[in-house]
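HUMAN: Would you supply a protein with fold tokens?

ASSISTANT:
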Amino acid sequence: MERAGEVRHEFVDGKRVALEGASKTHSRIKLNITLALGAVVIERGCRLHCGNTHLLTSCKRYYYPDVMVVCQDNGDAYLEETPCFIAEIISKAQKPPTEARSSKHTATFPAFSGTC
């Protein structure tokens, strides 16, 4: 993984894809979602990640969701695999989502129940 690097990457089909910086609007939306979920997630004993933790999809692709809630522990300090909630912020000015972020991949988690 890339714990020491300054540039973050997603991994799709064995290729590293560099992530672009976020706009101020994107950052505000992500913060608002994170703040809205925070207390409820903590009360339920789950973890809330806001863009800094890799998610491994069932297709062996790694990416950084903007906001992710996970209630099962996989024992890995740097990687999640079983989200129950994912939020991706997409804007008109943004490049199209990478293949790793397309719905056909983010919807294929064996443990993705949509409920936390």
Summary: Helices lie at 24-43, 103-106. The first strand starts at residue 9 and ends at 12. The radius of gyration is 14 Å. The mean pLDDT is 77.
